[in-house]
Amino acid sequence: MVQPNADVMAQWKQDAILKLIGAYRARRFLWDYTAPDYTDRNKRIDAWKEIADEVGYDVMTVERKLKSLKTHFMSVHKAYAKRRLKAELNSGSIVKPKWFAYEALTFLIKGRAPRLNREPPNVEKQSQHAAADHTWKPQEISSYRDEFTVFAEHVAIRLKNITDVRARLVAQHQINNILFEAEMGKYNAPSYNSVQMMENLDEPSTSNEEKVLINIPHTI
Question: Which InterPro entries does this one have (predicted)?
Answer without folding.
Answer: MADF-dom
